[in-house]
Design a protein that fits this description.
It contains ten helices and seven strands. It is an alpha/beta fold. A seven-stranded parallel beta sheet has the order 3-2-1-4-5-6-7, sandwiched between helices. Helix 5 packs parallel to helix 6. The two termini are 24 Å apart.
């Protein structure tokens, strides 16, 4: 069922919050943004022309990339449907963003609740103009450490793959009947551009599954006037990226990531990601796949000796 009230938190509430308002970023962080996505951004006026008076649904909207993206959309005049799990937090975000933000608390891993959410959205707003499937869960853990933790795979598949599929297929018929709409998938450069890395099997497999689903579906809905964009996002300094493995690495802020998301909404490219992703993927995952995987294997074996194999989130 859909939860009463408003709010969301994929990680435990005891973890420190990462603000999604503009902050002064370090030089390494700024370099990280330039290297991963360059100067990708759209002006406030461009965004307003694209979304003003339209309905945009954003999942994972209570923190991080989702919250920062929702803020830009509301400021640009879109009716922005905020979807996340924890009611209280989502209510705070909606109140902060103003009357253009509408909170729809929902546990996206409860597929009956997702169906009810879709029905309610269609009843209240009609077919959304844009769906931003942004909610997600990340985990880094070796396969040896996962022997008794099958639930890690179930959790990541549920939120990263099955939840957006369930929500999208419930809303697609109305969008196709209207003859317009856009799907945006927040993915990761870990499945396109970067070499496939050990220790991320649960996370990367679930992300790759939805990437492939979007790619297939995009071909089916194109004739109905709908488009789809997959954003292969670089590292962003959010709660979800607060693992021992990524902590301290250069990263973008949520606001910088929101510019990339808004660029995807306005420009509607098939793929949005690091400018070097295509050549890098060809080199590391195809031409030199064998040597790349051999090097990763050696590095991972050494990291296991140092106790990094259990990196990631507890629970």
């Amino acid at each position: 069922m859909i939860l009463a009230g408003r709010g969301s938190a994929i990680l435990p509430p005891t973890m420190p919050l990462v603000p999604s308002r503009r902050t002064i970023t370090s030089i390494p962080d700024r370099v990280a943004r330039l290297v991963t996505h360059g100067h990708v951004r759209v002006s406030d006026e461009e965004l307003r022309r694209s979304v003003e008076g339209r309905v945009v649904l954003v999942t994972g909207a209570s923190y991080g990339i989702g919250e920062a993206t929702a803020k830009r959309l509301v400021d640009a005049g879109a009716t922005t449907i905020l979807v996340a799990r924890t009611a209280e937090r989502l209510q705070e975000v909606a109140a902060d963003l103003g009357p253009g933000a509408r909170a729809y608390p929902c546990d996206l891993t409860d597929f009956d609740a997702v169906g009810a959410l879709a029905e309610q959205v269609l009843a209240d707003h009609g077919a959304p103009d844009v769906i931003v499937n942004n909610a997600g869960k990340s985990i880094h853990r070796s396969i040896a450490a996962s022997a008794e933790r099958f639930h890690d795979f179930q959790r990541t598949i549920d939120i990263n793959y099955l939840a957006p599929v369930r929500l999208t297929i419930a809303l697609l018929p109305a969008m196709r009947e209207r003859g317009s709409g856009h799907l945006v998938n927040t993915s990761t450069w870990g499945v396109y551009g970067m070499p496939i890395a050990p220790g991320w099997s649960a996370y990367l497999a679930s992300k790759a599954a939805f990437d492939t689903w979007v790619r297939c579906v995009a071909q089916e809905i194109r004739g109905d006037g709908l488009t789809a964009t997959t954003v292969h996002m670089g590292l962003v300094r959010t709660r979800m990226a607060s693992s021992a493995v990524t902590q301290g690495m250069p990263a973008m802020t949520p606001d910088e990531a929101a510019h990339i998301m808004c660029h995807a909404i306005v420009k509607r490219p098939r793929l949005a990601g690091p400018w070097w992703a295509g050549p890098a993927d060809l080199i590391s995952n195809q031409v030199f796949r064998g040597p790349t995987e051999a090097l990763h294997s050696r590095l991972f074996t050494e990291s296991e000796k140092r106790g990094w194999g259990m990196g990631g989130y507890p629970g």
